[in-house]
TrEMBL record:
Compositional bias annotation for Low complexity: 1-16
Name listed for the protein in its UniProt record: F-box domain-containing protein
Xref: InterPro entries: F-box-assoc_dom_typ3, F-box-assoc_interact_dom, F-box-like_dom_sf, F-box_dom, SCF_F-box_component
Source domain of life: Eukaryota
SMART domains named among the record's database cross-references: FBOX (SM00256)
Domain F-box: residue ranges: 44-85
Organism listed in the record: Triticum aestivum (Wheat)
Renumbered residue ranges of the record's region Disordered: 1-22
Amino acid sequence: MPTTTSLLPPAAATPSCSRTRTRSWPAAMAEAARAGATPPHRGLPDEIFIWEILVRLPPKSLLRCRAVCRGWRSATYTRGFLLAHHARQPTLPILYCYKLSDDEDEAECLDIIPFDHRAGLPAAEQIQSAARLAQASHLFLEASCDGLLVVSGGSAQFAICNPVTRQYAPLPLLSDKPFLAMYPYPPTGEYRLLTYPCRKSTLTSQVDCYVFALGSSQPPRNIGWVGVGELNFNATSLLFRGSLYWYLWQHESESNKIIVFDTTTESFRLLCGAVVPGCHELFEMDGMLGMSIFNMEGTVIDIWVLQQDYEREVWTFKCQIEMPVMEIRAQCGSHEDFWNVLVVPRDGELFVLLRFAGWLLQVDMNGKLVASLHRKGVGPTRLQLKQTLVPHAFFPTLEGYVVNDFPFI
């Protein structure tokens, strides 16, 4: 893994408050010129080489390029470049992989793997670990936002980390207020945590939620609660168009609801879901809110999308994916009934990732088994990772903050 000095800029980190390129390439190259750097390719304009080539590289490749010359190193450390570089990175579904001990009684480490499903990539490059964490038997991935991950378990009940820069810090404030979501607060760009004190089991119970800004010295702030239904806290939130979405589980009720949290006003509201029985998951596809609904056997998946007119709350059936059950069981040599299924959008289409009997399998929209990998301990999560080298000022303010140290391996 890269060393600490190659990952973080020598200057103090600045707050995360903008998602646009704040400095132009001439300013970045002016810094390089003042440093006495000479571009390694004199025939290629600096604007093209830095803002069209280096900005598109994966983080690990960019780190290696920093060693080429002082000009590249200086230009690629600027905040404007790092924000532009982050914007160019693909958003990929996260796989987990537990490495078991010799006696297979417990997991020794956890690999965090962005599944690069883009067309044209060799199979060996599709599944590459972004980071490896110790104490894997007690670690779980809870949330992902702009390349940052919230994990639970281990020596700290909750913690935040950047798998690329290998920064890690405990979040003791969540010890008595279980974690619900992490999101960027649009007015300031700071990252905030949404928590709740406990789970209520009745439909009439009201639970107050709390918001905490990372790096703030202020205590968590009570923002109230939507006050209806029981939120399926095991579900992962979906950040879509500046709001967080969760499917609302209402036992045997046929009235399916979605809880929406506006990250700007920090208020809750309800949205009607597609009234179809089954297991519901939310995703984003082509700028629209999508819902996948699995039948109880996990053999058929219905795909619905919410039309642009959100006020009417009209869901439209898009397609149905029939899983090749017999083919999968024959290939995996198992007749188990447990399926861990995830619908993933890709280039205007969908595919299905599923973990079954020690296999990771990929099925296309036509229900065709297109890829399989036999790897024990690997499986899909409902999180996505958009890797980043952007520095965040809140990390050093958190007690227990470390870089390139335990629990990273």
